């Protein structure tokens, strides 16, 4: 008989990992204070001491709070360190939005996501520059902490004009074309935001859709996806089914997140990926 699966997502763990994300954010700000230079990874994407410092903090916290649960983390992955795992594992992006970060912008985040049975069941996102935190776990509500205090957040009813979020640093014409063709005649305001902050903004009821017709890695989306689900939203893969995790090379070819309504699947609007194979991780 198969072993019953033990799920670990809980309110306590979400709080602990929210604290871990804050600690990682403090480590990033310390690197900013001291000054840093950017290096290039093998795939030519940038990395800094802040990425490494934040990842070390998160890995230590996960070892304390969730010992034995495998962790797939962006900078470990870049070094070829990927643990074997089953259907439960963490996905960590210690500094999402590195390009914005290097340019001195505020749109960067620490991300800790837990996948259980292919689904994001817990997430923590922290934006150090603006001191904004989101946490959520499966079965609970999404919580935001910022200068307005601590509160439950929820997605909003679809608004007009529809607010569509787009990447600040990885513009794809595909997303603009998708919005135009999938929502003909609809008033749409496009807003460029860097990093997983786009998920937090959707979860907080400040936008309606985030179509991503270009590559990301699973650690870019896991935490935000968990938070968005808890806030009443959804994030679907190209076929319109919920975005799944634990794919080959942890690669997302595209997705569409909304405030809960079903958007036309992005598949037929996707840019070609040179045969659909894996792209280099992290850009
Ligand atoms: N060609 C590509 N392949 C894989 N991931 C990509 C990519 N282009 C952009 N990304 C992902 O997009 C993230 C930034 O999101 P956004 O463009 O919404 O700000 C990057 O995160 P990192 O900054 O952690 O590398 C990176 O993972
Ligand atoms: Mg990232």
Please specify the SSE layout and strand pairing.
Elements: H1 11-34, E1 38-40, E2 46-48, H2 49-65, E3 71-73, H3 74-78, E4 88-96, H4 98-102, E5 109-116, E6 119-127, E7 132-137, E8 142-146, E9 149-153, E10 162-166, H5 173-182, E11 188-192, H6 197-203, E12 209-212, E13 216-217, H7 218-230, E14 234-236, E15 251-252, E16 255-258
Parallel strand pairs: 3-4, 10-11
Antiparallel strand pairs: 1-2, 4-5, 5-6, 6-7, 7-8, 8-9, 12-16, 13-15, 14-16
Bound molecules: adenosine-3'-5'-diphosphate (A3P) and magnesium ion.
| Number of helical elements | 7
In what order do the strands lie side by side in the largest sheet?
3-4-5-6-7-8-9
Helix-strand sequence: HEEHEHEHEEEEEEHEHEEHEEE
What is the residue-averaged pLDDT? Answer: 93
Total number of domains: 2
Termini separation comes to 44 Å
Small molecules (ligands, ions, cofactors) in the structure: adenosine-3'-5'-diphosphate, magnesium ion
Return the structural class: alpha+beta
Report the β-strand fraction as a percent range.
25-35%
Please give the largest β-sheet: 7 strands, mixed
Subcellular location: Cell inner membrane
GO cellular component, one term: plasma membrane
Binding site for Mg(2+) 2: 93, 96, 220
Catalytic activity: adenosine 3',5'-bisphosphate + H2O = AMP + phosphate
């Amino acid at each position: 008989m198969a072993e019953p699966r033990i799920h670990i997502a809980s309110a306590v763990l979400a709080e602990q990992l929210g604290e871990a994300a804050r600690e990682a954010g403090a480590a990033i700000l310390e690197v900013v204070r001291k000054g840093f230079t950017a290096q290039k990874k093998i795939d030519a994407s940038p990395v800094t001491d802040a990425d490494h410092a934040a990842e070390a903090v998160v890995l230590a916290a996960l070892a304390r709070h969730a010992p034995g649960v495998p962790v797939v983390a962006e900078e470990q992955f870049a070094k070829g360190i990927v643990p074997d795992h089953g259907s439960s594992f963490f996905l960590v992006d210690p500094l999402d939005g590195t390009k914005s970060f290097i340019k001195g912008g505020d749109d960067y985040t620490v991300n800790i996501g837990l996948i259980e049975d292919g689904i994001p069941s817990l997430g923590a996102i922290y934006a150090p520059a603006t001191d904004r935190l989101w946490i959520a776990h499966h079965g609970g509500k999404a919580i935001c902490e910022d200068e307005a205090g601590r509160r439950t957040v929820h997605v909003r009813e679809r608004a007009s004009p529809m607010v569509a979020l787009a990447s600040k640093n990885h513009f794809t014409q595909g997303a603009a074309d998708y919005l135009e063709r999938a929502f003909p005649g609809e008033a749409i305001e496009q807003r460029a935001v860097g990093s997983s902050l786009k998920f937090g903004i959707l979860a907080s009821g400040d936008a309606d859709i985030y179509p991503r017709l270009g590559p990301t890695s699973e650690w870019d989306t896991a935490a935000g996806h968990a938070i968005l689900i808890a806030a009443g939203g959804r994030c679907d893969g190209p076929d319109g089914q919920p975005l799944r995790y634990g794919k080959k090379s942890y690669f997302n070819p595209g997705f569409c997140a909304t405030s809960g309504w079903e958007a036309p699947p992005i598949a037929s609007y996707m840019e070609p990926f040179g045969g659909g194979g894996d792209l280099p991780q992290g850009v």
